[in-house]
Amino acid sequence: MRFVTPIIKVQNLRKVYRVGKEKVIALNDICLEIGEGEMCCIVGSSGSGKSTLLNQLAGLEKPTKGRVLIGKHDVSAMSENELAEFRQQHLGFIFQSYNLLPALTATENVALPLMFKGMPKKQREKIARAELKKMGLLARAKHKPTEMSGGQQQRVGIARAFAAKPKVIFADEPTGNLDSNTSRQVLYTMLEMAKEYGITFVMVTHERELANCGDRIVTIKDGRVLENVLLSDTEKEQNRRQLFGDLVSGDIAEPETTVTEDETPKNKKHAAPQKEQTADVRQAGGKPQAEKPPAGAQRAAGKPAAPPAAAQPAETVQQAKTPQEAQTKSV
Ligand SMILES: Nc1ncnc2c1ncn2[C@@H]1O[C@H](COP(=O)(O)OP(=O)(O)OP(=O)(O)O)[C@@H](O)[C@H]1O
Ligand SMILES: [Mg+2]
Question: Which residue has its alpha carbon closest to ligand 1 atom 14?
Answer without folding.
Answer: 49
